[in-house]
């Protein structure tokens, strides 16, 4: 019996353990942190061996195969020791994909991947049996085990892609590439770029690669990777022969001389970046032969993603907007770009080597006050204090919201768009977003 060791017992780890057991592996799960009760119960109920709060090398290095949580860097000594022994270390995405013949749509990018994946799923589920997984929803491995849908939409991070060997989506989508997570790539942008492009590495001529043709990093690197898949670019500015483009408030999609045109005037999602997300999702839907009417209706009734430019409440004619999912500068760029009123901006957290320069025009034009919410706000204070009249530091969400309430006037926006990771003060970006919403409701 082959031994499968799963490192990390979160959503993906627990799912991989269940699938591994069902496929006849002897399974052992090891998590350096305390395993959450919900996942501990899954392991106990399925008689899967586990350890919590430590990694016992003797029980791990004898593995035939290791499924590693995306949160564990490849550089930790344990992973290096496994590599040195020649043990295959893969991600849950790779593991689950080996046990399904489903049609896979995989979506990656520095920003927009959650919205694009959710929107794609929202359209496809109207006419197809489809699962939503990867970095979102229930674990891919568990869905393969329990539902095995004929189609999956997978939101895939660079860390998940780093653990893939044979992963081959029929349709791959790359929304954009901006510097992010560089701390995991030795601060070498080209390594991060290669990680994103690896989504297409196993694709063949029968597969499709949908990408943002307006993204300078993608355009500059297309020729550096041997891409066999058929290219379907989307663009806001150029006319595209095969793919999607935007003209006169319409999205025009052409695939093999088959053309569909859709108005964007009734899109529920605002901002140029969401027109791009809609173009990517509609192109996938068109490839999978979803009816044009269904695509159009789905675009118009899609409610968006929690923690992504989510309108929370209007209090005294002030709009409170939760964009906690903006964990990098580029995401915040889109948020500030879409603000159409003077904005009190709550920013800060764990900085991943951020360069805030691209935000300067918006800060000068739209931001009336900045509230820095982080353990270390020095860089933000140095960068922005000369641009706004009011800049304040705090380490409590409730206080940040109360300060914003005092500063904002009727017609203003209060925007939480941190441009940073959340781990200095919060469990994750969801926790940060929920605390913001709670504090707003308590005003």
Automatic annotation (TrEMBL):
Pathway(s) served: Cell wall biogenesis; peptidoglycan biosynthesis
UniProt GO BP: cell division; cell wall organization; peptidoglycan biosynthetic process; regulation of cell shape
Compartment list: Cytoplasm
Designated gene of the protein: murD
E.C. number: 6.3.2.9
Sequence ranges assigned to domain Mur ligase central in this UniProt record: 107-285
Full protein name: UDP-N-acetylmuramoylalanine--D-glutamate ligase
Stored InterPro entries: Mur-like_cat_sf (IPR036565), Mur_ligase_C (IPR004101), Mur_ligase_C_dom_sf (IPR036615), Mur_ligase_cen (IPR013221), MurD (IPR005762)
Catalysed reactions listed for this entry: UDP-N-acetyl-alpha-D-muramoyl-L-alanine + D-glutamate + ATP = UDP-N-acetyl-alpha-D-muramoyl-L-alanyl-D-glutamate + ADP + phosphate + H(+)
Function of the molecule: Cell wall formation. Catalyzes the addition of glutamate to the nucleotide precursor UDP-N-acetylmuramoyl-L-alanine (UMA).
Keyword annotations of the record: ATP-binding, Cell cycle, Cell division, Cell shape, Cell wall biogenesis/degradation, Cytoplasm, Ligase, Nucleotide-binding, Peptidoglycan synthesis
Residues holding ATP: 109-115
Family per similarity comment: Belongs to the MurCDEF family.
Domain Mur ligase C-terminal as annotated: residue spans: 307-420
Gene Ontology MF terms: ATP binding; UDP-N-acetylmuramoylalanine-D-glutamate ligase activity
Any single GO CC term annotated in Swiss-Prot or TrEMBL for this entry: cytoplasm
């Amino acid at each position: 019996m082959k031994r499968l060791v799963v490192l990390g017992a979160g959503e993906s780890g627990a799912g991989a353990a269940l699938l591994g057991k069902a496929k006849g592996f002897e399974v052992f799960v090891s998590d350096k942190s305390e395993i959450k009760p919900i996942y501990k119960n899954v392991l106990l109920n399925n008689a899967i061996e586990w350890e919590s709060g430590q990694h016992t090398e003797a029980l791990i290095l004898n593995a035939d195969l290791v499924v590693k949580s995306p949160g564990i860097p490849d550089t930790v000594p344990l992973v290096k020791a496994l590599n040195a022994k020649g043990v295959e270390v893969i991600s849950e995405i790779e593991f689950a994909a080996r046990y399904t013949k489903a049609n896979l749509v995989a979506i990656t990018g520095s920003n927009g991947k959650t919205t694009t994946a959710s929107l794609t799923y929202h359209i496809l589920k109207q006419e197809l049996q489809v699962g939503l997984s990867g970095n979102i929803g229930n674990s891919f491995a568990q869905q393969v085990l329990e539902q095995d849908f004929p189609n999956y939409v997978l939101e895939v991070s660079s860390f998940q892609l780093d653990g893939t060997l044979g992963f081959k989506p029929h349709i791959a989508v790359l929304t954009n590439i901006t510097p992010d997570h560089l701390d995991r790539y030795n601060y070498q942008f080209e390594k991060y770029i290669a990680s994103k492009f690896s989504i297409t590495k196993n694709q063949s001529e029968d597969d499709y690669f949908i990408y943002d043709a307006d993204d300078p990093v993608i355009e500059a690197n297309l020729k550096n990777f041997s891409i066999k898949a058929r290219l379907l670019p989307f663009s806001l500015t150029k006319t595209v022969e095969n793919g999607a483009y935007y003209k006169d408030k319409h999205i025009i999609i052409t695939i093999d001389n088959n053309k569909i045109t859709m108005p964007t005037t009734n899109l529920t999602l605002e901002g140029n970046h969401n027109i791009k997300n809609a173009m990517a999702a509609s192109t996938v839907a068109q490839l999978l032969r979803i009816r044009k009417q269904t695509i159009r209706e789905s675009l118009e009734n899609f409610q968006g993603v929690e923690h992504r430019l989510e309108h929370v409440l209007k209090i005294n004619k002030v709009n409170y907007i939760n964009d906690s999912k903006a964990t990098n500068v580029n995401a915040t760029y889109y948020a500030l770009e879409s603000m159409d009123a003077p904005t009190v901006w709550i920013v800060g957290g764990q900085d991943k080597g951020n360069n805030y320069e691209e935000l300067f025009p918006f800060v000068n034009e739209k931001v009336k006050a900045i509230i820095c919410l982080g353990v270390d706000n020095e860089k933000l204070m140095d960068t922005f204090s000369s641009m706004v009249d009011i800049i304040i530091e705090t380490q409590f969400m409730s206080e940040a919201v109360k300060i914003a309430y005092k500063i904002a006037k009727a017609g203003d926006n209060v925007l939480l768009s941190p441009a940073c990771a959340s781990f200095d003060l919060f469990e994750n970006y969801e926790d940060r977003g929920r605390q913001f919403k709670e504090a707003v409701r308590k005003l």
